[in-house]
Amino acid sequence: MQVTVTSVLINTKKLCIVCFRARRAAKEAKEAPAQPAPAKVKVEVKKFVKIGRPGYKGEPTECLYILIYLIIVKLQMLCILIYWSLSFLFSQ
User: Fold this and answer.
1) What does the alpha-carbon distance between residue 61 and residue 64 come to, in Å, rounded to a whole number?
2) How far is CA 54 from the centre of its chain?
3) Could you give the CA distance from residue 10 to residue 30 in angstroms, rounded to a whole number?
4) CA distances, 27 to each of 18, 22, 32, 80 (Å)
5) d(Cα 19, Cα 72) in Å, to the nearest integer?
6) How far apart are CA 36 and CA 33, in angstroms?
7) Over 80: is that where the pLDDT of 57 sits?
8) Given CA atoms 82, 84, 90, 92 in this order, what sign does their dihedral have?
9) pLDDT band, residue 16 (cuts 50/70/90)
10) What 3-state DSSP class applies to 53?
11) In the chain, what are the domain boundaries?
12) Spatial distance between the Cα atoms of 20 and 27, rounded to a whole number of angstroms
């Protein structure tokens, strides 16, 4: 993209217009009388029937085992990458 004097002037004019509109909107919002917020309509929350065993949320130890497994797998992958990089460096 070639920057010319006209393109700079056009972009500057656009920026001035945007700034003017923002200033005018802020001024109008400041001068306008404060309107009270409309009253909130209370919506009833639908109750859903859960399917599955009642009271079953999963074993916390099971989640812990999964987390430990994922950490071990990530560490193994990291060790393999380090081994490959070192073997590549020392093979040359």
Assistant:
1) 5
2) 35
3) 30
4) 14, 9, 9, 63
5) 55
6) 10
7) no
8) negative
9) confident
10) coil
11) 1-33, 58-92
12) 10
